[in-house]
Amino acid sequence: MRGYRTSPGSGSLPVHLLDGNFLEQEIPKVNDKTLDQIAKNLVALVPLFHRKVVRQDHRVSAIQLAGYRVLVTLLREGSLPISEVGRRLYISKPYMTRLADDLLKEGLVERTPDGEDRRVVRLTITGAGERRLGEMGDLFKDGIKVFLSGLDPHDLSTLNESLENLMRIMSAMKEG
Question: Which of 127, 128, 63, 129 is nearest to 96 (CA)?
Answer without folding.
Answer: 63
